[in-house]
Amino acid sequence: MALPISIKQLLEGNIVEWERLDFKEGWNPEDVIHSMCAFANDIHNWGGGYIVVGVKEQDGVPVLPPVGVNLHVLDDIQKDLVKLTFKVEPYVTIVSEPVEYMGKMILVIYVPGGDTRPYKCPIHLGKSEEQRGKVYYVRQTSVTRQANEVEEQQLISLAAKVPFDDRICHQASITDMSKLLIGDYLNRVGSSITESDLERMSMEEICRSMHIASGSTEFFKPKNVGLLFFSRKAEEYIPYARIEIVHFHDEVGDHFDEKVLHGPIHLQYEEAMRYLNEMLVEKVMKVKGESEAVRVWNYPYQALEEVVANAIFHKSWDDRNPIEIRINKDSIEVYNLAGPTPPITNADLQKEKVINRSYRNRRIGDFLKELHITEGRSTGFPKIYRALKNNDSPLPEFDTDEHNQYFLATIKIHEAFINEDAYLKKIGKERDVEAENVLENVPNNVLDKLTERQRVIYGIIKLNVPNNVPNNVPDDGSDFAVETVESLASKLSVSTKSIKRDLKRMKELGVIKREGGNFGGHWEIIK
Question: Which of 109, 151, 231, 304 is the least crowded, having the fewest Cβ atoms under 10 Å away?
Fold first, then answer.
């Protein structure tokens, strides 16, 4: 079966952490079986690991080019490998594949975290040695070693505790997953499984190679992670596997828009980020004595990316509640159940870096990392803080209760969008009155009805003189005054679709009106 990740990505180390890679210069069955046992135990819920035979390592990092494996012994090695899987107790599942890289043949062995932990294997191979009993092995950084007493107890406590995302969904069928969605994913991550491979392979073969289904031939069922990423109807089996966005237009909450996202969770993430991106506005403030204006965003996009990805990564998907994104007048909140995994507490969440390598959703994390949505190295919080500091935004707020039953992330709007003068004074600058922003042309009774971007559009329309409007301006909302949708989109750093939607909304609010017909028409302010 083919590996669901390219060898180049594997060896470059930008997708799979070095702790999950074990490099072997040559074939040593004892070393390999110990690493197989350790990866199957997956004590940190990392998602198993990869053993790469034919690559020398130095301090846990591969030395390239590889030394390679002799082609004449490769077949014998693979036969030995099958025998080794039966020497691990209980039996361990692996995927192995010979791969050519930099002109050399190497053998890659993928060992997923096992469903029936804990696993143990002989210290030494040989009939007499194996009769002495078996022991547990674990991974510590890039080293495979025997588990100590504490780790043995931890492994035993993990018995029969398979994470939800890696469990079989007995109610579903592999036909509930889409081959098209799987192909799209494999193409995105640069997998060695080609389009022609997919056409040739059966659905069962694809699912086995990606470990998104499991069971005997007569009872082969999808895993929850497979349904979450590759089914368009995952909610039939995993209720509320969705993201709900609520956009409040007032502080009371009487007026709001709601958008519910469905389908594969990585596509839900992308759709949620497109929606949030449309909410982002850059404020440009001209200040005295400086040629460069002060520019800030109401919310930095990079911070929102991390917060939403974090919610998907750490949500308790067996809990019947969706991920909620609430867009308030002065903040964006992302809420999900359950909270951070122990031993993380609410006090820990107040730090800029939170380190916890015990993941709730190890398989979901693997797929998100391969899609470059998350990194899985406790980098989420630092990236959120960095994005906010670069934008001079308020620091984020993270909250959970004493029982870690929920997680709430709050990103506050930039101070300049609440009180521009106060913010400029705070940073030691003064507004340039002569270069006043077009927003000064907007009456106070209109401001409350408009978003920040719509206010800018309002000011531009008011400043334009109808007598200067060129002829042949179509009456379809694509052009108005002396500006075009394209020029406005460029100035405001948004899509033309957003500008058209703003115009429509402003017309519905009774703020602007269209004067004239298909040709020679223009937009005017309603006084």
Answer: 151
